[in-house]
Specification:
This protein is of the alpha/beta class. It is built from nine helices and eight strands. Helix 4 (about 125-135) packs across helix 6.
């Protein structure tokens, strides 16, 4: 009698939603996905005709967006399933596996490093930023985003998200970048636009809290909450420079840092 063979899962299938990363195509996750996506859309032109490394590329949708405009995109992630998924689903991305604290690239080999919603997961943030500086060419840029500690985990010493090791405010982000050797060209924040502000008002002051409350209780979402979350668009978020808005009130921080 022959031994049964377990079918091999297709690596191009959607990655599971673990809470550690966002993935496209899940209606209940759409708010977070669009909130992450705005950083890519707003900074995409920085990558035009450049050699780009996305350090911590996760599901790969962002690296694939960058591939629309870049000369070359290298995706890097530590997770086996994410690496296999990107290779299968996004063939325009040159996907490699490695540790963000020891980037497997030569000195001065890329024009742009993209690192969106990743640094808060890292234990040695300073070491990672030094590695970004090392692999960038002189004049190259780091494009980086992270949740704003002040609004994401208000009044707490430890992050609300169990996958986060250290969250940052704008001053802390700036200090880390400068200490690593970067010059900060832009410090900006992501904010709710009018459409999501209206949804905040509809859901008792916070669309985010309405989602989290039901998730923590294990309650099914009301049909209108599910519909509202699924309808959020990327353009419903605003990216505003610190000179134009109160950066400490932002949802997420976005910085452009330059290697001298």
């Amino acid at each position: 009698m022959s031994e049964a063979v377990t079918p091999v899962e297709n690596p191009a299938d959607p990655l599971p939603l673990t809470g550690e990363r966002t993935v496209p195509g899940i209606p209940e996750e759409n708010y977070w996905f669009r909130r992450h996506e705005i950083a890519y859309t707003e900074l995409l032109d920085q990558c035009r005709d450049k050699v780009v490394l996305e350090a911590g590329s996760g599901e790969g949708y962002g690296a694939n967006m960058i591939a629309e405009v870049a000369a070359k995109v290298i995706g890097l992630d530590y997770d086996d399933s994410a690496v296999a998924h990107v290779r299968a689903k996004y063939p325009r991305v040159e996907m490699i596996q490695g540790n963000l604290a020891d980037l497997p690239l030569e000195d001065g080999s890329v024009d742009i490093v993209v690192n969106f919603q990743v640094i808060e997961h890292l234990w040695d943030q300073a070491q990672f930023l030094r590695e970004c500086l090392r692999v960038l060419k002189p004049g190259g840029k780091l494009l980086i985003s992270t949740p704003n500690r002040i609004t994401f985990s208000p009044g707490r010493d430890t992050p609300l998200n169990p996958f986060h090791t250290r969250e940052l405010n704008a001053a802390e982000m700036d200090e880390l970048l400068v200490e690593a050797g970067f010059q900060v060209e832009l410090m900006a924040g992501i904010f709710h636009g009018p459409g999501v502000v209206a949804l905040d008002e509809k859901w008792g002051g916070s669309l985010i809290d309405a989602q989290i409350e039901r998730a923590l209780k294990g309650e099914p979402w009301p049909a209108d909450l599910a519909a509202d979350v699924a309808a959020v668009r990327t353009e419903d978020f605003l990216l505003l420079a610190d000179k134009d808005a109160d950066i400490d009130a932002s949802l997420d921080l976005v910085a452009i840092a330059v290697k001298p």
